[in-house]
Amino acid sequence: MSSSNPTTDPASIVIAVDGTSGSGKSSTSRGVADRLGMRYLDTGAMYRAMTWWMLSNDVDVHDAEAVAAAAGKPVITSGTDPLGPTIALDGGDVSVEIRSDRVNGAVSPVATVPEVRTRLVALQQQEIRDALAAGSGIVVEGRDIGTAVWPDADLKLYVTADPAARAARRAAEEGGTDAEAVRASLENRDKIDSTKGGAAVPEGATHLDTTPYTLEEVIQLVVELVETTAYGTSGKAGE
Predict the structure, then answer these.
(1) Helices marked H in the chain — which ranges?
(2) What pTM value is reported for the model?
(3) What is the pLDDT of residues 168-179, one digit of tens each?
(4) CA atoms of 174 and 235, how far apart (whole Å)
(5) N or C: lower Cβ tally within 10 Å for the chain?
(6) Are 106 and 122 members of one domain?
(7) Residue 8: pLDDT above 50?
(8) Residue 20, marked binder
(9) Would the annotation count 21 as a binding residue?
């Protein structure tokens, strides 16, 4: 099977990619979407954009009632090109701002507020409907895609990796950050997600452990899974 000329028609396909931080799900999702000519949606960026808006407007992120009252105010727009995904807030691009340490430390309490989740899940579902209506299909990445956002996804993946591998990858992405410190941070994030119920494995999901694979190998594996889902046929990774 040629990876450069896939046979899969992605027009009616929704791929839900859930999993742990640092597992490679973002890079995999973008790569698969690019390979198959699909849209890509980073739902985590939407929660980060909401958090940045709260911080910028002096909303106490630890005051759930205040966050809930403001959850409907920001206008959040996602760019779904897998080669250059963007996130805009009230018309201005905030792709850089949402990755700041300030947002890192505030996103979890914001994301647990029910009104925030209800608002953003609705936006995410609309992005999926728009993609299907446009005939492009979509790869949606997050932590509750296959359980809450789109339980009827054509293909559900749950992506994980060995903790050491996850830490090494994330440290490399962050420009050589200490891997042990990153590992501790990732483990803490996993605990937070498990207690808020956002890291459940979706029913019917394919578990993909990326530890022994390169990024290109993982992308190829997922492309083959898409082909199996769409047509009942598949090749072998590396062909």
Answers:
(1) 25-36, 43-56, 64-70, 101-104, 107-111, 114-133, 163-173, 179-196, 215-231
(2) 0.85
(3) 766 666 555 666
(4) 35
(5) C
(6) yes
(7) no
(8) yes
(9) yes
Q: What is the dihedral of CA 185, 191, 194, 199, to 10 degrees?
A: 20
- The closest alpha carbon to 18, from 155, 117, 123, belongs to 155
Helix 25-36 with 215-231: angle, nearest 10 deg: 50
* Co-location of 177 and 132 in the same domain: no
Say if residue 26 carries a ligand binding annotation.
yes
- The HSE-up count of residue 216 (CA atoms within 13 Å, CB side) is 4
The CATH number of the domain holding residue 123 is 3.40.50.300
* Residue 9 resides in a domain: no
Does 77 count as an annotated binding residue? Answer: no
User: 185 among the known binding-site residues?
Assistant: no
2 assigned ligand-binding residue: no
Does 37 show up as a binding residue in the annotation? no
What contacts 42, CB < 8 A, 6 or more positions away? 26, 29, 78, 85, 87, 141, 142
Average pLDDT over residues 128-150: 95
| Distance of alpha carbon 239 from alpha carbon 233, whole angstroms | 14
